[in-house]
Amino acid sequence: MWNRIVALACCALASLASAQAGWNFQALGSFGGNASWATAVNNAGEVVGWAGVRKGEFTDMDPEFHAFVLFGATMRDLGPAGSNSAARAISDNGEIAGTGANGVVTWHRGAMTTLPFKGTPNRINRMSAVVGTYDSAAGDFRGFVHRNGVMTELGTLGGSWSTAVSINDRGVIVGTSVNAAGAVRGFVLQDARMREIGTFGGPVSQAHDVNERGVVVGSAGNASGGVEAFIDDGVMRPLFPAASPYDVGEAFAINARGQVVGILNDAGFLWDGGKLTMLRELLTAEQRAQWGVLTPAGINDRGWIVGVASTEGVNGVPGGYRRGFVLKPPAEMNGDGVPRQTR
Higher model confidence: residue 38 or residue 17? Predict the structure, then answer.
């Protein structure tokens, strides 16, 4: 059930239109704690994550936190009271997957259901299929898919562990596993076949997301010791040319339009139409003075980007506090600067 409704006007830190490019940046508040995290956004513009309920010793985390869903000006506390919870994914029909006191949970129309196993969900699709990672009976962690009331272990590439990170509405699953040689590799699971994703000459690859067209993004090591963001639409290749072979780049999410968000040397980026834009470039000077690092977690088909904003590095100060954020493109704003909504 909905435990609390908080008007976003009371808990948001900022919501200012970017004079540079017309983007709208919104830093989310909390339920009384120091921190909040935005983890996913669906095509209706519903944002989920978790937010602190009670402040603790550290400014970037809280001893008690609750899952939330944000739509329009309302940030709803999913609870339950007295225990920690986190919303990690939301489907286009509004069903949410996350964690609660007793393991994996889902929320649908305000009702919370606890699934009969412990683990961490990473994505939920329109058919209510949830993927993530759980602790297997063998003592290792394995990727899983839960659909139609049944949890199925996904197996591995031949090694000891796996994790499932994303699933599209066609049921294509991507994640990371260890192969028989002991190497960590990304994988694509489709039609009961697990395909290994290679590298650019380095030791590791990871698959982070798959869109409705079946295009996969992730990260892969190169021969120089760097890490490059990749895209795989049947042919795996770097998402963009590396400025240095020692750069570290990861692609975290891709939408149906082919827009990709990720990080490059710890700074958030947007890849759109062959152009690389660092997310902080989309902020006003005032916002850049407040937020040192933007780490994206997801992007919907409307181009809304969600993630975590940190004050780390602002004015040379390490650490700092973290808040979830929503970054909306100009096409998603009305003339008065108010975001368009679909529900």
Answer: 38
